[in-house]
Structure formats: structure tokens, C-alpha cells
Design brief:
The complex is a heterodimer of chains A (496) and B (97).
Chain A (H helix, E strand, L loop, with lengths): L8 H9 L5 H19 L2 E4 L1 H16 L10 E5 L26 H8 L3 E6 L33 H8 L5 E6 L5 H7 L2 E4 L19 E6 L2 H11 L29 E5 L9 H16 L3 E5 L7 H16 L17 H12 L2 H14 L5 H21 L5 E5 L14 H5 L6 H5 L4 E9 L8 E8 L5 H15 L8 H7 L1
Parallel strand pairs in A: 2-3, 2-4, 7-8, 7-9
Antiparallel strand pairs in A: 1-3, 4-6, 5-6, 5-10, 9-11, 10-11
Helix pairs in contact in A: 2-3, 9-11, 9-12
Chain B lengths: L7 H7 L6 H18 L34 H5 L5 E2 L2 E2 L9
Antiparallel strand pairs in B: 1-2
The chains are: A alpha/beta (496), B mainly alpha (97).
Chain lengths: 496, 97
């Protein structure tokens, strides 16, 4: 019974729809595995047993009535910045520690309608601000590949749950790399679609012009079917695009013949640690072996991505998080008057990284600084997007590292800027709104590591070219097979 | 570009964030360092470049103004830090009189 949990999402749904196993049995097996494994990993902030059982009951009823839900009985983990009716939704922040969401995020609703079983809500850097999950105010999440290392972030709990095989897939959100970098660190597939493909309704906002929900899974094919289920226009999010979603769950390509893969001149591999460099050099050779034509492309403005992002994202964050004032929901710390109550509530409710970003964003938007910081950053963003448009005239997909290193140890990045640099390879794509994913591409064993640590290859496509991107990623994945098939060895050892 | 100096106490006031003296010092140093990095943007020729308003052109359309069901009052008030009957209870904003 337990073995069904290691299948892909379509295989699980197939087994349920063929009535080889019931959704109720899967729910019990998944919850039991979660209780066994999660104490070692800490991926979940809230376990939603009742919700999972209730969803399973409904799926079994639908299947008995002759329906064949696309994701029937698939156990899922949801990042805790996504609203689920009646469920605690914290953003891993003290300011929302006890807040119960009164509605469902559209992406979650669509997956529930397709038959998923929500096991629980996963840990994240507070309000999705961070690259290691260490900024959570509510818990520590460990990397299943080395329990002394971070899972990456901000979707750290989601990737850890998938890597630990506790959930068959998870939802994350990606603002500057928060799906792709942790997916690379935990050896799973993480996919951020084009901005506007998936509704952000019910995703608690961090930086609205960048935030995008996406699937985290054990294979590209799984990510594709999840994406297809969630994507499409939503009247509740005016930034969703009305454009048709190209079907991606039909069999994806398994070769790269005729595909031009852009290798970015400015992302020179020789700047990386030699062992890491070798893995990426091999990944590029594998792309070629599978039939791709490698072409050099230039992204001269990409190196300004981090600086651009750390003005735009905090500016939007400072505005979005102004709503947390202790009046209508969340924490309230009473003080002498209403102004002091705002200040005390926000001081007690937000952690350091959130405060830093609110401060820098407020500064960048303040009178006398707005043009010099915010407007200049938005102009730089235009240049970065134009770089990609030029590059995609010469190639179909761009390949580069998802991160410059494998997962690092806890407390290794005490300086905020060194943490910000972890998103060096993911931020430019986010600023340009492009669909981008990380797929496992090999392993390195740095000194002091518990064992091999995964690395991720980042593949990026032009706007709305999800099908071509997923085709390329699937071809790379099936032609290399770096993804783990079972829980990583350190976790297996901890369990034994 | 503007000075990398950031008046953390002033900005914190704008952001409605109470900071301890230790936080003012720590954040001041960290954010000053970040602004030094951000200065790199001065090297970009942006004089004739349009600022990005929306990364995907043509989105952000409106919709028909039709009355639809919304969350009921009781559900929303359940999340309130304090309530009084059918209302949010909040501190006085005009002072005691």
C-alpha cells in the first residue's frame, strides 16, 4: 500500500480511477508516512488530516459514481502562503500565526476539484522572503539529503516534503527563485510558469508583479499535468491572461532534435566551484547528446538582476504588507494609541528579513528617492526583458545553473546580501516574467556533507512557451535520469 | 543616484514599524550595504528607457461590474483581533473626548 505513494501523480490517479486502491487508503498511508518522516524533516507547519480524509471521501464517491478526476487521490503539500478555507494560513509569520483562511486560493480550488488530498501546509521563509527557509518564524525545515543543511527557500517546506516522498507533489510560489532554487537544493522539479498563467487569488501577496504559483514534483511530466490543471484565466485575478493554455499533459518529447538551447555567455561556469562546474558542463554536453544545438546567447543586463530585484520586490512588499496593521485580522499588540498599536503590532509580528525589506522598500518609494531607486530599477527591468527577447530570437530555451552551489549548512549566510546572491540565476527570469524551471542534473559531495547533494539545471523559455519548455525539460530528464526514485539516503537512515 | 545613506528611523516611522535602538543600528548597516550594491545600477544607460509598468503587456483588464456573492460578515469577523457585535473593534483614532 505504502508503495503507491512513490508513484507519479498520474499513476496514483490512474490507480484510484481504476479502483485498484481507494483515495481513503491513500490518505491513511500518506498521513501515516507523514507522521513517521516529517519529524526528521519539519516540512509541515500544519497537518490537515481532516481535510485530507474529507477530500478522499469525496474522491471515492466521485469515482464510484463513474467520474475519473485527473488527480484522484494524489497526496499534496501546500505552501503556507496559500489560502485554504478553514485552515490556518500563516506565511510562517507571527503576525498570521493563528489566522484561519476564509476562502480557497484559485490554484488550490482547481486542484481540489481535480481530486487532490491536501495533507498540510508547508514551511517557508516568512512571507516568502528568503532563500533557505531559515527566515521562518514558526519552524525549522531540514534538507532530506543532509539534515544539517537548508532545503533552500522560500518554498523550503514544499520541496522537502516532495524530496522526502511525504507528498506526491507540492505547491510553491516563486517571486525571484523561490520554487527553482529550493527544488535544485532538494533534487526535485520546480516549475514557475509565465507570470499571469496561474491565478494569484488566495496567494498572500509579497511582490505582486513577480509572484507566481507553481508545482513542485518528482518529474517534469508530473509538473506538467499539475500546471495544466491550475493554469488559465481567473476573474479573481486581473493579471491572469485570457490566452489559451496549450495542453502539456499529452506525452512530452523525449529528444531535443532541432531544439536550439541558449547558453548564456555572462553565466560563465568557470566562476563556479570546480565540482559544481563539472556537473553543469556535463549537463550542457548531455543536452547536445540528446540532439540540441547549443548556441551562445548574451544577457548583458542580467548581472544587474539582483540589484534591480532588491529595489522592486521590497517596494512592492512594503506596500502589500501595509495591510498587516493589527486591525482586521492577525496579531494585535495594544499600545497607547492607534499609531503606537500599528507600530507595536508590526514590530512584534514581523521578523528581521521582512522588516529589512519593508524598510528598504519604503525608502525606495519615499519622496526624493522614488526616481533614483524605484523608477531606475523598473527601467533596468525593461532592459533585462529586452535582453531575453533578443536571446530568444536565436534559441528556443535557455539553460543555466539554478544556483551556484548545492544546499548550504544552517547559519552559513549571516550577511543578508550573500543570501540574496543565491538567486543570481533565477531573478532575471522572474523580472522578465518568463516560464522557468529547475530539473535535477547531478550531484556533488562537498566536504562535510552527509552524502551527495543534488544540483538543478535551470531551463527557461519565452513568454507563454510552457509546452516547448516542458518538452525540453522532459527530454533532458528522461535522457539523463538524475532524479532520485526514493527518499534520499540520509532521511532513510534517520528513519531506520 | 541618491545617497546610499538611509535614515532608518525616519523610514521606520513611514512604515509604521517600531524599532529598538539596536535594530536601528543593525538594519542601518545592513541596508546601507545593500544600497551600496544597488548603486551598480547607475552604470546602466537608462535615460531613454521606458520603466516597466507590466511585464506582460495587455493584462490587467477590467470586468463587468456585477454584484456577486462575497464572504459573509460572520466569517470575516472571525479573524478579527477584537470585535464588538457586527463590527471590528479598533483603537480610537480621534482621541478621547
Amino acid at each position: 500500500m505504502d508503495g503507491v505513494l512513490d508513484l507519479g501523480v498520474r499513476e496514483i490517479a490512474e490507480a484510484v480511477n481504476a479502483r485498484r486502491v481507494s483515495a481513503a487508503e491513500i490518505a491513511e498511508a500518506a498521513l501515516s508516512r507523514l507522521r513517521e518522516r516529517d519529524p526528521h524533516v519539519g516540512a509541515f507547519l500544519t497537518v490537515t488530516e481532516d481535510l485530507a480524509r474529507e477530500a478522499a471521501r469525496r474522491v471515492d464517491e466521485r469515482v464510484a459514481a463513474g467520474e475519473r478526476p485527473a488527480l484522484a487521490g494524489v497526496p499534496a503539500a501546500l505552501k503556507d502562503n496559500l489560502c485554504v478555507t478553514g485552515t490556518r494560513t500563516t506565511c510562517a509569520s507571527k503576525i498570521l500565526e493563528n489566522w484561519i483562511a476564509p476562502y480557497d486560493a484559485t490554484a488550490v480550488r482547481r486542484l481540489l476539484d481535480a481530486g487532490i488530498l491536501p495533507l498540510g501546509k508547508t514551511n517557508l521563509d516568512e512571507f516568502a522572503m528568503g532563500s533557505s527557509c531559515e527566515n521562518s518564524a514558526l519552524g525549522v525545515t531540514r534538507n532530506p539529503w543532509d539534515l544539517g543543511r537548508v532545503p533552500g527557500g522560500s518554498s523550503g517546506g514544499s520541496v522537502a516534503a516532495v524530496a522526502a516522498r511525504t507528498a506526491a507533489f507540492a505547491l510553491g510560489s516563486d517571486t525571484g527563485g523561490s520554487i527553482r532554487e529550493p527544488a535544485a537544493f532538494c533534487g526535485v522539479v520546480g516549475f514557475k510558469p509565465t507570470y499571469g498563467r496561474i491565478s494569484r487569488y488566495g496567494l498572500i501577496a509579497f511582490a505582486s508583479s513577480l509572484d507566481q504559483i507553481g508545482p513542485i514534483a518528482n518529474s517534469v511530466a508530473d509538473a506538467a499535468v499539475l500546471y495544466e490543471t491550475m493554469a488559465g484565466f481567473d476573474p479573481y485575478d486581473a493579471t491572469t491572461v485570457a490566452r489559451e493554455v496549450e495542453p502539456v499533459s499529452a506525452p512530452l518529447r523525449e529528444d531535443l532534435r532541432g531544439v536550439r538551447v541558449g547558453i548564456v555567455k555572462e553565466f560563465a561556469l568557470d566562476e563556479l566551484d570546480p565540482a559544481v562546474r563539472d556537473v553543469y558542463a556535463q549537463a550542457y554536453r548531455d543536452l547536445e547528446r540528446l540532439g540540441a544545438e547549443l548556441v551562445e546567447v548574451e544577457l548583458p543586463t542580467a548581472e544587474y538582476g539582483v540589484a534591480t530585484y532588491y529595489l522592486i520586490a521590497p517596494a512592492e512588499c512594503s506596500s502589500n504588507l501595509a495591510r498587516f496593521d493589527g486591525m482586521r485580522y492577525g496579531l494585535r499588540v495594544e499600545a497607547a494609541d492607534v499609531g503606537a498599536t500599528y507600530e507595536a503590532t508590526r514590530a512584534a509580528g514581523f521578523g528581521d528579513e521582512v522588516k529589512r525589506r519593508i524598510l528598504i522598500g519604503t525608502h525606495a518609494l519615499s519622496s526624493g528617492y522614488y526616481d533614483a531607486y524605484y523608477v531606475r530599477a523598473q527601467k533596468a527591468r525593461t532592459l533585462i526583458a529586452a535582453d531575453f527577447a533578443r536571446a530568444f530570437a536565436r534559441c528556443d530555451v535557455i539553460a543555466c545553473p539554478a544556483a551556484a552551489s548545492p544546499a548550504f549548512a544552517f547559519n552559513a549566510k549571516s550577511d543578508p546580501y550573500s543570501m540574496y546572491l543565491m538567486d543570481y540565476y533565477t531573478i532575471p527570469m522572474s523580472l522578465a516574467g518568463l516560464p522557468s524551471l529547475s530539473v535535477p542534473c547531478g550531484y556533488v559531495t562537498p566536504e562535510g556533507a552527509a552524502g551527495p547533494l543534488p544540483l538543478g539545471l535551470e531551463l527557461t523559455g519565452p513568454l507563454f512557451a510552457e509546452r516547448a519548455l516542458l518538452d525540453a525539460a522532459n527530454a533532458y530528464e528522461t535522457g539523463t535520469r538524475h532524479a532520485a526514485k526514493h527518499a534520499p539516503p540520509p532521511l532513510a537512515e534517520a528513519l531506520s | 543616484m541618491a545617497s546610499a545613506d538611509i535614515d532608518v528611523e525616519y523610514v521606520a516611522k513611514l512604515a509604521r514599524l517600531a524599532l529598538s535602538p539596536a535594530e536601528v543600528e543593525r538594519f542601518g548597516a545592513q541596508l546601507g550595504a545593500l544600497l551600496d550594491h544597488v548603486k551598480a545600477l547607475e552604470a546602466l544607460p537608462v535615460a531613454d528607457v521606458a520603466a516597466t509598468a507590466a511585464v506582460i503587456p495587455g493584462t490587467g483588464t477590467g470586468r463587468a461590474d456585477v454584484v456577486r456573492p462575497c464572504l459573509d460578515r460572520e466569517t470575516v469577523l472571525r479573524g478579527a483581533p477584537q470585535r464588538q457585535g457586527a463590527y471590528f473593534r479598533v483603537p480610537s483614532i480621534l482621541g478621547e473626548s
